[in-house]
Amino acid sequence: MKIPLYYSKQQRIVFLMKKPTLLIIEDEEPIRQGLIDLFVFHGYDVDWAEDGKTGLEKALRGQFDMILLDIMLPEMDGYQVCEEIRRTDREQPIIMLTARSNEEDIISGLSLGADDYVAKPFSIQQLLLRVDAVLRRSRRLEQKQAHLNLPGNITVDTLNLTISLPSNKKEIPLTKREVEFLAYLCKESHRPVPREELLVKVWGYHPDAKIETRTVDIHVVKLRRKIEQNPKQPKILVTIRGEGYTLSS
Ligand code: CA
Q1: Phi, psi torsion values for 206, nearest 5 degrees
Q2: Which residues are in the CB-under-5-Å shell of ion ligand 1?
């Protein structure tokens, strides 16, 4: 089994103890078979489904460390599958496979709770890096603060993954990554944080991974829709041109 070299000794031991389990939901036979072969080769325990309905049943029945979910699927599309999984399991790591490069489609996938997306045609290296990063993050059982206080009397409940806004009586659900993103900006509140740093610290990518920084921007757009009164003129999660993102003070 191949273990990335940048893993610490502890991480490598954890990896050797348990094979990560993966569910691939993809209707196109050549792509599905390619993915199965790739992840079996890299030491994953792989199950698969050819349509959304079967995929959802397997996802709800089994325990998977990761689900790779195509969007255009027979029976039930990837968005619906993702939404249904999230209804019962907020922490299930899910990566969407999208043939579309349309930003709106990617955002709607992420809004339904996917942890990340990979656009087809994808490079094998990119896909492995992303799966690996999401897995590592979900395994990182860090002791976290129970609450974060953001500017504008906004409170984030980091255990229940919700955010409370003074303008809205309801608690809004956040994804794990959104909570980690906000937690990191809080910790570094004295300065704007560059996208490249966020990809390493929040997304868990290796500094040499060369992941496109648009990934960060897309998550910011989605997060602003949840927390800003006017997402087009953000007052809380602000962009400092040429420097990065910060929380307004
Ligand atoms: Ca498809």
Answers
A1: -70, 140
A2: 27, 70, 72
